[in-house]
Structure formats: structure tokens, C-alpha cells
Amino acid sequence: MSGNSWSASSRGRWGDLAHAVRRLITSSPSRFAILIFATLILLFTALFSLPIASASGTVTPLNDALFTAVSTICVTGLSTVDMATHWSPFGHVLTFLGVNIGGMGVLTLASVLGLVISKKLGLRAKLLAAGDSNPLRAHGGVVNEGQTVRLGEVGQLLMTVAMSLILIELVVAALLYPGLVMAGIHPLTALWEAPYYSAMAFTNTGFAPNATGVVEFVDDYFVLTVLMMGVFLGSIGFPVIYTLAKHHFHVKRWSLHSKLTLITTAILLVVGAVVFIILEFDNPKTFGAMDAVDTTFQSFFLSAMTRSGGFSVIEISELNGSSKLAISMLMFVGGGSASTAGGIKVTTLAVLALAVWSEARGRQSVQVFGRRIPSDVQRVALSVVAWGATIVALSTIVITQITKASTEDVLFDVISAFGTVGLSTGLTAELPQSATYVMAATIFMGRVGTVTLAAAVAATTRTQLYSLPVERPIVG
């Protein structure tokens, strides 16, 4: 075969492949996103398995490499190995890159890659991309002129996702660096730990570059506050970041999704802190040995971390059972839609709470801030909760049967896996090989499952007539 013939044949095969990819992107963007995520996990599993990735220079067992890859790409923070000591510098760099890639989100990442391959996003891909990085379908019915303007902003929104991730992590790292140095960390070591902690905070992962984690900063309010700030910005989601960047403090111009996300997040932060103060103030192993100021601050820190941050300055296993249950509830809710946080998302909780309140008031529709939330958004909120509860229940049953461990501890770690939080009672690190695969599957389904459900609703159109203007917040 001549060189020209081989070249033409090669171009033909690549052309067929590109056509197949473009068809997949336009026909089923959510399926394409899941495929990309699964491919990344397999790639990072192979990389983590390399001898160069471990500190000992040996091959990491498949179950540990796979679990680490899933936890990294899904920005979870749970691990079956000691993340600080098991991995080599190459392994730590892999973790750093993995959480940033995963932090961009399933659908956003898929949209960016699809844009590179197909050169342009089709209408359905734009709808789906907007669903992950913008409050999609602010108006019901067919795609109208106002809707088209929003679709035209998708490229700008995707750029906002990437730029906000880079900019926020740089700012958080710059703030952390002097704090780490003042805490006694060597200036050269802090050059690595500052961006590492920054990435783990903004992506809501919770891995630490040292064996003691953030425990060594238990009395350092500055470092812990900066970490909380990074976790908060990562958990509110890119749609809210975009809204705040575009409209600043013009609250009336904020989307309904942004309002619900910020209000619900603030309520859960305060309520969680108050609950932990009440439940742990007399526990000598946690807050009982602290004064009032320390107890209050650490309660807010714990409340902020339980909905996806994953950092902890106290031993989770030493908390009262009532506190573990409260944490489990917060972890199940998670953070904002299209964010680096997991869970069913705060907007899902807000929509369901508003639906219950409207039903109690005898209203025929769910209304808030002069907008009516459509019934299909309420249905997908219920679906997301049902999906999440089913995953948690099945995983808890299977892992409990395998390990014969306490149901309380298993349930805690399973919800932490589903909500991609990263807090653990110590159970995950001791799981047998078969149970690690179940936990890894829980993490994956928790990260991509709710997004897929939300995408199914976002990609549909229907004609509806309402007396009030309709705005659809993102759920799931």
C-alpha cells in the first residue's frame, strides 16, 4: 500500500471516529459525559498503579489504585491508603491534577472536550452545557429569544468555569502560603502545600499533603478560615459564581437558582453549627475540652466541611452518635448544583421544602421570589432524592453484609461516599477488597447519577402557559 493510500485510509478512519463522537455528543450528551468520566478514571487507575506513583516504588494493588482514581476524579476525599505517605511526588501531582479535572464537573468537562472534537456545540449539547454551568431554562415553553441569548452565553460560561477555578485556587493559595509559613512549615514545603490545600479546598476533596492533615492547624483560625472560604466558593457552584461575577450585589438580577443556593447554604451552615454545639459541648473527646470561642469556631468549621469539604480537625469516630447522624444528613444534602460538591444538592432540598410549605399553605403552585417553580422541576427533585436514598441503602446493606461492621459506621461512610465528602469513621481504610469496589461504585453513582437525572429534565421542552413568569432552578 502506498503512503498516500495509507494516509487517506487513516484520515477516513479518524473521520469516521470523529463523526461517531459528534453523533454521540449531539444525541446523548449526558451519556458522553459519563463515558468521559469513566475513561478518566481508568486512565488515572493505570497511572496510580505505576511503580513511580508509589513512595515505595512498587505497584499499587488494583483495588487501591482504582479507589484512589475514583475518589480523585470524583473529588471525594475518601481513601483506602494513607494519601500522604503512600504516594510519591509523582502520585501527589496526579492527585492534584485529578481533582482539578474532576472539579470542573462531569458535563462541563464533557462539553469542553466535545467542543474541541466537534469544533462547535450542537443545540442539545448547548442545552446540557448550560444546565451544568448556568441556570438553564429560566422561562418555560419553547426556546424563545431570551432563551437563545442564554444559549449563546455557553462558551462564555465554560470559560468562566475554567477561569474561576484557576483564579480562585491561586487566590486561596496566596492567602494560605503566609499562614502555612507562620504555622512552622518550611517556606519551600509551603510552596507545594499551599496550592495543594487550595485545590483540595475549592474542589471540596479534603486530601492533605501531610500525615496529620489539618489537625496541626487546629488553633490556627486564619488557615482554617481560608480553607472554609475555598470550600464555600467551590460548594456554591459555577452558576452562582457566574451570577455574582456578572451582577455583583444587584440581588434583583440574581437568578432564582443563585438565590436559593446562597440562602439554603447559609441556613444549613448556621443550623449545622448550632446543632454541633448542642450535641458536642459536653463531649470531652471533641468540643468538651474547648472554651466557648473554640467550640463555636470549630462547630462552624465542622458544619462547613460536612456538606462536602472533607477536612476535619477532630476524630469523626469520637463524635456522639447523634452528631454522626446530623453529619450524615448534611452530607446527603451536599452543596450547590454544578459545583465541586456532591449530594442531592441544596437546591433540591430548597425546592422540596418550598413544595411542602406551599402544600401546607394550601397553594396550588410553588412560588418564591415572584417566580413559580414548574412541576417537572419538583418531580426531578423527588427523583434525585429517591435515587440517592436507593444508592445509599443498597450500598449500606451490601457493605455491612461483607464487613459485618457497625451499621452506624457503614452508613456514615457510604453517605460520605455518595455525597463525595471524604469524612470517615475509619471504616473505609479497613475495607476488604470486594467492599472497596462497592464503595467506589457508590462514589461514581453519587457524582454522576444526579447530574444525569437533572440533564434529562433540562434537555426537554414543553409548552406551558402560566400567569406568572417561570424560572427553573437547577436541581441535582
UniProtKB/TrEMBL annotation:
UniProt organism field: Microbacterium ginsengiterrae
InterPro entries in the record: Cat_transpt
Keyword Protein biosynthesis in record: no
Transmembrane segments: 32-53, 93-117, 157-177, 221-244, 256-279, 329-357, 377-398, 435-459
Any one of the GO BP annotations: metal ion transport
Any one GO molecular function term: monoatomic cation transmembrane transporter activity
Chief subcellular location: membrane
Pfam families: TrkH
The protein's name: Trk-type K+ transport system membrane component
Highest taxon of the lineage: Bacteria
